[in-house]
Amino acid sequence: MTTSHYAEFERVTRQYHLLGSIESLLDWDQETCMPPRGVKQRAEQLALLAGLAHERLISDEYAAALRKAETNGRGDDWPSATNVREMRRRMERARRLPTELVRETAKVSALAKQVWARARRESRFDLFAPPLERLLELKRRAAELIGFEGEPYDALLDEYEPGARSADVAVVFDELRKTLVPLAAAIAKAPRRPDVALLSRYCPKEPQAEFCRRVAAALGFDFQSGRMDVSTHPFCSGTCPHDVRITTRYDERFLPAALFGTMHEAGHALYEQGLDAAHAGTPAGQSVSLGIHESQSRMWENFVGRSRPFWQHWFGPLTQQFTSLAEVRLDDWVFAINHVRPSLIRVEADEVTYGLHIMLRFDLERRLMTGKLAVRDIPQAWNDGMKSLLGITPDSDANGCLQDIHWSMGAIGYFPTYALGNLYAAQFFEAARAALPELDDQFRNGHYAPLLEWLRLSIHRHGMRYRAAELVQVVTGRPLSAEPFVRYLRGKFEPLCGLG
Ligand code: ZN
């Protein structure tokens, strides 16, 4: 490897990512503290940066630097092989999309977001149908230009989950569906039911904030390399492993929103803080995919944060912090935070039914991309799907096909990563348990460092060295399957609900 050629490629790559990190800081500012009337100026700032970044990536200079690094490199070097491979993929993808198409998509989706917000408010799908139709046309064109081996949907899925194929995802989802549908139905008829009213007891905001910060710090979130703020929709962003920012939201009549929202975002943040700072600004220092990212957030939120051993440690501090919960019993609390029931809204769904919401969207999106499903038939197809998967029918399109913002943003192919996250999480967690037999005792004592260290060594420090499917194979010794997640759900919910 000619060092100077590679060093030059790395330098321009880091510059490209610096632009992106400035964008994410501006986004964070917009969501957390920007005055509302600053939005116009902010949109111009973001558009300028996005344009500069895109131009750099598709420039002849960048192509030349990449080509020199490729021709002078050795294929298996770390981190150079990873960085070259990944930047080649991104550049090719970006170059296949004409600027006019990128601009048109941005414009249509900016408009579609506004229309969607109104359509959802008034529960009128007919308002949203025309911009959605237009967005799908643009997405079909993008898929053709990007190219795919299987079906058009693959080209879009690849943006969020590099290397994933719809057909493979469908096989895993089909396997999962066979368990989820009957399990959700059995739990709905189960003899034991939680007292969920205790979740809406009054918990003032300030103590919530204090408690959430304590939990996040205990899990391993480093406040010297991160912040926690408030936003309408919780998220995790940042600029590098030493500046990772999470947000949460407080509802004084529903403590779980902040509590589990914080653990979820902290899970994303632990991944970001665990990436190797020496590789920051290059793919070797970046996360694998949205699905792998989601595996980290869901592991900390659900596999750890909704487990009995976790609360054997935290229940004392919780009841001390909130007098309204003083009389509650540990088992009643654990049962209530694990309440399973079919519901209309994805973001409020429990661990068992969540995947079914995703399968519905995945199925509709694939059919929309091939044209087998017409936009005007979405409401009916949605309601039919809800009935067959969850046994309930939405009372309105607002609580049905209009509930999520993703389609209005043109984010087709994004939803599957949420469900993949659960599957990856379960498979990783089984491997972690095998490597760390004392895990439950450690949780009972409030010790999370062993699990975090295992995640850092097995997943975080590799950056984008492996594609998601390879990483699963390397870490667990097997390809991705729905079995570990099914085992996890049965092992947890059957005893909890008094089944079997
Ligand atoms: Zn997440």
Descriptive notes:
Helix 14 crosses helix 16. This protein has a 3-stranded mixed beta sheet. 63% of the residues lie in helices and 3% in strands. The chain is globular. Strand 2 and strand 3 form a beta hairpin. The protein has 500 residues and is mostly helical. The structure holds zinc ion (ZN). Zinc ion binds next to helix 10 and helix 11.
In short, what is this structure?
With 500 residues, this protein is mainly alpha-helical.
The main sheet comes to: 3 strands, mixed
Bound molecules: zinc ion
Low-confidence stretches: none
Secondary structure category? mainly alpha
Multimeric state of these chains?
single chain
Number of helices: 20
The count of strands amounts to 3
The helicity comes to: 55-70%
Q: On the 0-100 scale, what is the average pLDDT?
A: 95
3D shape: globular
Strand order, main sheet: write it out: 1-3-2
